């Protein structure tokens, strides 16, 4: 059910982006050709070369892999420079959950090793390690803010 949920979210994001003129493609790790393309690395690269945004859905297609790990894996496969991580109501990485702890302090800059060593749960350890090994930056932003 979780993998299908990511497909629904990807299709909603695609609809939002295309409604403002941004060409977009959704690729999924499980086949459902009526609504999205299957993930094929070369095809994803071609879409990017043509200026399209590619949204990946359905995780890796295997259970036990988080969406964080999938994002890091796809970013690594495509030689991406950055992972953009949208959060609901949080505009960055904090030392505690700012929704729960009003004294939470926002970090201005962290390394992936900092995220792992400090136990910051912005993304799982596998995803942080994969991103670190492939020099992929992480930008966390509040998805509710415009602009």
Automatic annotation (TrEMBL):
GO terms for biological process: 'de novo' CTP biosynthetic process; UDP biosynthetic process. Its EC number is 2.7.4.22. Pathway: Pyrimidine metabolism; CTP biosynthesis via de novo pathway; UDP from UMP (UMPK route): step 1/1. Residues 1-142 form the Aspartate/glutamate/uridylate kinase domain. The keyword Transmembrane helix does not apply. InterPro entries: AceGlu_kinase-like_sf, Asp/Glu/Uridylate_kinase, Uridylate_kinase_bac. GO terms for molecular function: ATP binding; UMP kinase activity. Keywords: ATP-binding, Kinase, Nucleotide-binding, Pyrimidine biosynthesis, Transferase. GO terms for cellular component: cytoplasm. Belongs to the UMP kinase family. This is UMP kinase.
